[in-house]
Hints:
- The complex is a heterodimer.
- Chain A is an alpha+beta fold.
- Helices cover 28% and strands 25% of the residues of chain A.
- Chain A has 3 domains: 22-30 and 487-630, Aldehyde oxidase/xanthine dehydrogenase, molybdopterin binding domain (Aldehyde Oxidoreductase, domain 4, 2-Layer Sandwich), CATH 3.30.365; 33-135 and 203-284, Aldehyde oxidase/xanthine dehydrogenase, a/b hammerhead (Aldehyde Oxidoreductase, domain 3, Alpha-Beta Complex); 296-472 and 634-784, Aldehyde oxidase/xanthine dehydrogenase, molybdopterin binding domain (Aldehyde Oxidoreductase, domain 4, 2-Layer Sandwich).
- Chain A is built from 18 helices and 33 strands.
- In chain A, 57% of the residues are buried.
- In chain B, strand 6 and strand 7 (143-148) form a beta hairpin.
- In chain B, helix 9 (228-234) packs antiparallel against helix 10 (241-254) and helix 10 (241-254) runs antiparallel to helix 11.
Amino acid sequence: MIQCKTSKAIGGMGHSLKRKEDARFIQGKGNYVDDVKLPGMLYMDIVRSPYAYAKIKNINIEEAMKVPGVVAVVSGRDLEKYNLHWMPTLMSDTQMVLPTDTVMYQSQEVAAVIATTKYAARDGREAVIVEYEPMKPVIDPFKSLDPSAPVLRSDKEGKTDNHIWNWKAGDKEKTDTLFETADVVVKEQMHIPRIHVASIETCGCVADYDKVNNHLTMYMTTQAPHAIRTVIALVAGHVGLTEEKVRVIAPDIGGGFGGKVPVYPGYVIAIAVSFLVGKPVKWIEDRSENLQADSFARDYHITAEMAGTKDGKILGTRFKILADHGYTDASANPSKFPTGMFSIATGSYDYGTTYMECDAVYTNKPPGGVAYRCSFRVTEAVHAIERITDRFAFEVGKDPADLRMQNFIKKEDFPWKSPTGWIYDSGDYHAGLQKAMDALNYNDLRREQAEKRAKGELMGIGISTFTEIVGAGPSKDFDILGIKMFDSAEIRVHPTGKAIARFGTKSQGQGHETTYAQIIAEELGIPAENIAIEEGDTDTAPYGLGTYASRSTPTAGAAAAIAARKLRDKARKIAAYLLEVSEDDLEWEPGKFFVKGAPEKSKTIQELVFAAYTNHPQGMEAGFEATHYYDPPNLTFPSGAYICVVDIDRETCEIKVRRFVAIDDCGNIINPMIVQGQVHGGLTQGIAPAMYEELIYDEAGNILNGTFMDYLVPTAVESPNWETGHTVTPSPHHPIGAKGVGESPTVGAPPAIANAIVDALSPFGITHLDIPITPFKIFKALKEKGVF
Amino acid sequence: MIAQSFQYESPGTLAEAIALLNEHGDEAKVLSGGHSLIPMMKLRFASPGYLIDINNIPGLSDIKEEAGVVRIGALVRESQLEHSDLLAKHFPIFKDVTKLIADPQVRNMGTLGGNLAHGDAANDHPAVMIALGASVVITNAEGEREVPIDEFFYGFYMTAIQQGEILTEIRIPVPASGTGNAYHKLERKVGDYATAGVAVQITVGEDGIVTSAGIGLTNLNPVPLRASRSEEALIGKPLSDETIALAAQFASEDCSPNSDLRGSEEYKRHLTSVLVKRMIAKAVERING
């Protein structure tokens, strides 16, 4: 049970408050970007390339311009006149806004049609005739470095191959020596598939340029409005749009998951067109465009190795990665971390030796990869370590639960320095796994499995005991395009004791309007229901880097607590003044200060706030406002122990997830109901790549599953009954001991499922299958083993 | 996902609808539930100039039994099939199949007539109709004609329905006592087309001899397929593991599935065999149940 310090009326941390934002969402009264309608607004639709790699010979707009309602067709040549045809990516690579000569991936933007209605814009799009000269594309990343492969980024001076960068971590020599001498070495080649966030709301914007005042208001689906404003100013400053003339408003967002961090060409084209015609321009992607063209996630090919002793002690790991970034490196990582936080791949285990290396390559596929509900490549890292750990357990003949218990970092060893240099803040991995095992009577299940195996039935049990790394991040290491990854909160309490607080983050469904209010309620004793939360308008909110990578609670949540504490200090001064005692004689309980030993002499927070406006001490600044920019001293390290039980139909190879127990440790919990909701959603997005989702391309670079008919997003029907629980190990360095939870389940679930399926198939000598593991894939694997 | 512009017509009688179809010829498409046609229009795979909406025509939405025949109007929704007591009595197979079609919202709109008239071997009802030995009533300006289901499907999106004609009713003979039926498809996720689907209706006499058998296959052939050799393997023989295995083997040999994202040809043939066995078992269980 979670202990609450505040009453239910105040609704501080630990209360399962209903989400404040849901009143409008469940009544259909949310305000999304497509709800923005401005006078004279034009609509934009985008012509896209049917080829993965082709020269543009000609763009004929004659017929399109005849379509009633079409006012303009814009090509790369038009943007080139204003030097707006290229833009930087968040990883300091470059990306076409619209091509002038060559298309680099299927569904790439080729031209934009502007019309008075969205229907006319779509008809106009169909009428644009583009002549292409197709070229042989580079699709397979393993062939991208062949000397015979065409150099895709010939736009870059001196570029002679398709290599982007090389990254290394750990100690190569020590690791290689260990692997030469270790008793047991296991190795698997695994692919973490290219997937898509597929949020319910696609991307879009309304760019509203006001010619008279030379001012741009940009309504857009962005998880990081402040950073976007800065990027717009950097890209368009040369045409007069300097930062004070740009206002970015992110209204309600229907899911982001990392896919709404990047700047897509459509946003820039809309701005350019609005700037040129002086009218607001709306661009909303349709479902297929979103799936086919917007940044993908994952797509890491990993060779994972583990070395250890015959009795199951892990001694070291080695990871070699090939990262397929598509046409440009459009990842959304902190700038100094090209592989994000992949170096957390040493996992939850106590050993000292690792070496990791990654080469990134260009191919003729859409650019990426974004951190899909994942703190920058942690999903890839966790899959690699949790799969190879199971593989090691299988090799030495140990139960994977026992082997994990044997190798876990011990509770008393935190803070613990990982072989790649991270300082894990806290954790109790043994307790988490034990709780998960108890929840489903693990030993009984193993007995049942043995009986079933004897009868030829396929049942598997899979474990994932992962360590996350979130809350980026400390300014000494973490920045995006040079901007440090702090985040902010500003609290204004009105004379009557009600408050508004604004943040540099941006909720996309996480429930910030509720949880931030609860943090402030916890610290100030003002009821959460009396605290309005606002985010997403760069004219009013304090600067921050936005919401992704489970960073909002670790950064902005901390800022809220500290800003509230500044206000509590002020309230204490006012209370001392009003009660005519010294500050030291006062004691705080949520909602009021009282005189030690004389609790009847007290002042409520509401009385103290009122006094700040009506009767404040001489010499004190009037008002009751505080702002804090929080620069975290360290990252936070949530963890989890997940166990999955599957049954596989031996004839049809269908997979049924019978049980799934998820024990999460995200430190102190702000709102248990919201955490549970986050975990349910995240687990469903974890089963997705494990069993259903993958963007598939043929040799010509055509996407084979570019609609939801074939890109299989799981629904409630596919979702098992999630059994959730938690252990609580507070973060010692975070002001409220919280760690962030949004992404843990997405990160932790896929290897639990994969491990369960491989466990079920292990009697046939199957040691690994790449996700997504489908019935067809199992059929092929069993067929290879001579079963059919 | 925006369709090209089109003219919408909503006639109140069958005669008016047929007149409109004759007037606009190839340019016109009939709209019933719209769950095949409208997605195709949104993707601009289909761009009819005229949509003739038949939803306001009375008399096409009933399920009734007359003289040993169950008559189902072309506009009967999937959800009506799913919840009909009359159908449940003779044909538990309708509950099997409708529950596997898309989701409740789609089933509230999608119609049996539309599912068949679309002429897509990936749809589920064609196989069921083959198993049940149904026939289809087609109406034109001259009157109506009844087409056995085996003569209805011509090819990919092609059926016996000609220009100026509307599918108006489906007729299914009420089976003899001792009959059971069942349908199942394997799908990658809910709402997907079948990786493989099998419909079975089987009648077993009191002596244990199979007197009739109907087996239809979903998405395993360019046109909806009757597994004739499988039926023949069962009829006139007592049900045994051997005859069932033979029926399963014939079905897996006689279908002609494509390798695609759902699986290889080999996997689909394998599933066909498994499903034929399972659906025969389930249909027989229902006779005895």
